[in-house]
Amino acid sequence: MNLIRLTKFIQEHNHQCDPKTIEFASKNLQLPQQIIDKIKHYTTNGNLGAGQQYKLLVQEYPQYKIAKKNLYNAIQRFQGVRIHDETDATTMLLYLLKQQEDNPSCAVIPRLEGPANELTRLFWMTSQQCNDLWPKFHDVIVYDNTSKKNRYKMALSLFVAIDNNYKTRIVAQALTKYENQADFNWILECTLQATNDLQPKVLFTDSDPAIIAAVQVVYPQTRHLLCIYHLLENIKKKAKSKLRDEAASSFVSDFYAMRNSYSEEQFNTKYREMLTSREYWARYCISKIFTAGVESTQRVESINSVIKKLVDRGTLLKELVTAIECELDKESQYTRMNDYYESNPSVGLPSIYKTIFKELDSVLQANLLLIPLSIQRAQMNQSLLYQGNLISIDQVEEEGGNFNGILEHLYDTPQIRLRDLLNGISYDDITELWEVSYIRSKTSKSHYVAILEDSTILCTCMFIVNQEMICCHQFRVFIQSDNAIFHISHIHMRWLNSNSDLPNSTGFITIVNGERNHTAIPLSYMNQFKTDNVYTLSIREKVSKKVQFGAAMSVAKTSIQITVTENVTDELITILIQFITKYRRNTGLSAISFPGTELLQESQGSSIQDNQQPLLIFPEVSNPEYHRPKGRPPHKRYKSVVENDRVISGKSNETTAQKTCSYCSGKGHNIRGCPRYKAESSANKENEYSDE
Question: Which residues form the MULE transposase domain (predicted)?
Answer without folding.
Answer: 140-234
